[in-house]
Amino acid sequence: DAGVTQSPTHLIKTRGQQVTLRCSPKSGHDTVSWYQQALGQGPQFIFQYYEEEERQRGNFPDRFSGHQFPNYSSELNVNALLLGDSALYLCASSSGPRSYEQYFGPGTRLTVT
Amino acid sequence: DAKTTQPPSMDCAEGRAANLPCNHSTISGNEYVYWYRQIHSQGPQYIIHGLKNNETNEMASLIITEDRKSSTLILPHATLRDTAVYYCIVRVATGANSKLTFGKGITLSVRP
Question: Is B99 close to A48, i.e. CB distance below 8 A?
């Protein structure tokens, strides 16, 4: 049973560019949440997708957007990249938006130069 | 969600119990205490959660004080693989808001 998978593992972008990160949830899960983790900090909630709609959103600008597909996989898009967007981006899946347990993927390390 | 306070770090000897404290003095009656951990270069991993009774599973035990203002995560026989950052989180378990609000956590170092 595959857990949460994310791609790519690492990537390097230049300031001002756009990036798309991908996540496949754990088998049987239908809800995907995205978190940003800066170095030395705990993960910060970006948003959550359920039934192909954004259900909750954290304190992140509109440059951060997402999408969920009918197969429950999800994408995180970040436009107009800033140096401060350099971080580990984590995807977590759960069975329903109210589930007490979230399963995290290994993350995508984004470096903006 | 209520805020939590954890010391920045602690260590323990391999094979001994690791007791990780957490203060959550402003916790509401409908908020649960959750513990996650993050091993280096991995995503966070769920450990355990509880409301007011002590809880135990195959990974750890959670002891919540009677006034619910603090709790302790206990790893009964710590191993080197338990070296990680441990996050104590409080949140409402029901309702639409299921986001996890992480602090900086406590870094546990298990020494041989």
Answer: yes
- On the question of pLDDT at A100 being above 80, the answer is no
Q: Are A33 and A102 in contact (CB under 8 A)?
A: yes
Chain A interface includes B93 (CB < 8 A): yes
What is the tens place of the pLDDT at every residue in A11-66? 999 999 999 999 999 999 999 999 999 999 999 999 999 999 999 899 999 999 99
Q: Which of B13, B27, B15 is nearest to B68 (CA)?
A: B27
Task: Supply the pLDDT for residue B99.
Answer: 80
* Interface residue B50 vs chain A (CB under 8 A): no
Mean of pLDDT values over A81-110: 93
The DSSP secondary structure of A42-93, one letter per residue, reads: --EEEEEEETTEEEEE-S--TTEEEEE-TTS-EEEEE-S--GGG-EEEEEEE
What is the spatial distance between Cα B110 and Cα B112, in angstroms, rounded to a whole number?
Answer: 7
pLDDT of residue B97 exceeding 60: yes
Are the Cβ atoms of B49 and A33 closer than 8 angstroms?
A: no
How would you classify the pairing of strands A10-13 and A108-112?
parallel
Contact (Cβ atoms closer than 8 angstroms) between residue A35 and residue A107? no
